[in-house]
Design brief:
The protein is α/β, with parallel strands linked by helices and 563 residues long. It folds into 3 domains: 9-190, 3-Layer(aba) Sandwich (Rossmann fold); 204-358, 3-Layer(aba) Sandwich (Rossmann fold), CATH 3.40.50.1220; 374-549, Thiamin diphosphate (ThDP)-binding fold, Pyr/PP domains (Rossmann fold). The chain has 22 helices and 19 strands. The relative contact order is 0.10. Residues 207-338 form the Thiamine pyrophosphate enzyme central domain.
Amino acid sequence: MTTSQDTSQLTGHAGEIATAVARAHGVETMFTLSGAHVFPMYDGAVRSQQAAEQDGGRPVRLVDVRHEQTAAFAAEATGKLTRVPGLAVLTAGPGVTNGVSALAQARFAGSPMVVVGGRAPNNRWGTGALQEIDHLPIVGPVTKHAATLMSADDVAAGFDLAFTQARSSHRGPTYVDVPMDEFFNTGSGPMPAIGDYRGAEPDSDAVARIAGLVAAAQRPVLILGTDVWADRAEEAALRLVEEMRLPAITNGMGRGIVPGGHPLLVTKARGAAINGADLVVVVGTPLDFRLGYGVFGGTDGSEPAAVVHIADSPGQISGHASLAGSVAGDLTSVLDGLLEALAGARQPDRTAWLTLLQDTVAAASAKDAELLGAEADPIHPARIYGELVPRLADDAVVIGDGGDFVSFAGKFVEPRRPGCWLDPGPYGCLGAGLGAAIAARIARPSAQVALLLGDGAAGFSLMDVDTLVRHDLPVVMVMGNNSAWGLEKGPMQMLYGYDVAADLAPRTAYDQVVAALGGAGETVTDPREIGPALDRAFAANAPYLVNVITDVDAAYPRSTFGI
């Protein structure tokens, strides 16, 4: 029991207190790989069952994985999916350093998560204790906040600060560690007071100026990104799109805010939209390499589009792009403020612009249909999506972990609901998929979970199928197996006329690896067998890998290499 008679105070050993604070912030799952430095956190999770029985809340579930990177990626994905900070608990030294890539991914993607590290004991510090290292200089550059809590009495306030920082705009990862001897010690501290963590109210004059730019634009385009979802502004964004009839493109976890198939979703006309627009309004995503660094159009000698950048916090507003307007703050307030300002404004007739984009979408869809139904041998990777997309429910969670194969997913998979798409984000880290799949199955227990794997990416984390099996977490894994690092093979050939270090063993039976770990699967070499294999996978109620052998020469067409 971690609450004293005074319900505003927590008492117990430091692991109990830490877990109680996490639980107060809405954490329901602790992802970890067993390590003695953090045993008190495990005891805290066990004791949370008793606390849940007393207060009617939920206990903290303990999920142990096979590699710390998976625990950290699962926490990152939990933060994305639930918009409550995910929690990873990693033992000292290599346990923490194995989680750094996920911390960096979360920093770039704005994912709320807290990593708790073990730490060598204070009473042995400086004498060469097991895994003794100061983690803060390592994790500091990729976190919003990092701290060592030197005593058990520091834990309640220190953990509350970590969770508060993680879930406040602009969201991101935080880190805390506690010396091992203090983790086992008894302490006390305040029960956290949980707020709503809304961002600041936006500057009304800035909103009005942006509304004026939109009202005057002949050919506007709205781009909606991950932070629209993270800031719980998806309903406000759809209201603005529909009531003002603004064509929209979505990326990251912004996908699904304007449902797939919606007449105002023009992602399939992306080139025509951003090259033909006279105003591009970018909401909740950085003006990075994915968006041409904030330069739209102008390639044919015409004037580039005016650009507006809207973010959830001032630090996210682009400092390198030439902006016609910008505003930061709570995104629902910004978007509803724009809608209110535009409701009574005179605006030009944009019928021709919308018709052009919708016709471009229709033409692109017709062209896509040829690839989606391709009978090519070897299999064209697009055919996999031709079979998968019709089998996905509206609430299916789709996870991308790969290069070339997942690029096709970005082209062909248009979610019908927000919060249903997970990819690595701008950091581009492979190996996140199994952790994300574990998180998705726990966070969305009744939804389909489809993990899209490149055969290269699978090598980072496929062992954690064992975690799926042990914790009874059925996931459908769909692999595009072209026996190569396809994202590198083609560009290297283009640059040098040859490629090296780009080939993998041909036709590896990764489905047999999954079966050996307790799951199931099959290899597919005939395009006509992809659909039946997917049906068996979704019906299996087990971790199931459909290993589709694809054509290495059927590469995703690219206009940028991400630099």
